[in-house]
What we know:
- This protein is of the alpha+beta class and 136 residues long.
- It is 31% helix and 35% strand.
- The protein contains three helices and five strands.
- The protein has a five-stranded mixed β-sheet with strand order 1-2-3-4-5, with helices on both faces.
Amino acid sequence: MKFPWSRKTARADPRRRLGDAAERLATRHLEDLGYRILARNVVFDIGEIDIVAEHDGCVVVVEVKSAKESPGFSPADRVNAKKRKKLLSLARRFAATHRLTGSAFRFDIVSVVYPTAGEPRIDVYPRAFDAAGRPA
């Protein structure tokens, strides 16, 4: 039996495939910047963390957003208060699961923009919001 929310079905969705490609690009870009990738696509019952990395002595929860190029819009703008709150909850679960409760956490956003021609543009927003969910 195939469930509509199964991972295989989700991968067939063109938007999901674009998001997966963006996560791979973001991972490589972060590694080039010195991030050590600890995990990708960490799934809990309330959602998923795209990337967990270590950088500058912090555990970094990374949200990857992607979109086709549009003037005046950044995919990072889609990380609203509700999403930040969810990422905070996910980070707490990750910390508890991996016994990292004493570690410093930070929240970064990676924006991947696909232009109509040429290579995607990748922007990293370190410390995009704080542990209370307030934007930086």
